[in-house]
Amino acid sequence: MDYFAAIRAFLSAAELGSFSKAAARIEVKTSTVSRYITELERDLGIALFNRSTRGLVLTEGGRVFREQAVGVVKSLEEAREVTSSLNSSPRGLLRVTMPCTFGRRHVIRHLPDFMDRYPKIDVDVVMTDEVLNIIDSGIDLAIRIGVLPDSQLMARQLAAHRRVVCASPAYVAQYGAPASPAELAAHAALRFSRAADDRWLLVNRARTSVHAKQEAVSVTLRGRLRLDDTEAVLDLAVAGRGIALLPTWAIGDALRDGKLVQLLPEWEAQPGSAAAAVWAVYPPKKTVSSKVRAFIDFYTAVFDREGCFDTTLGKRAAAKKD
Question: By its UniProt entry, which Gene3D superfamilies does this protein fall under (predicted)?
Answer without folding.
Answer: 3.40.190.290, Winged helix-like DNA-binding domain superfamily/Winged helix DNA-binding domain
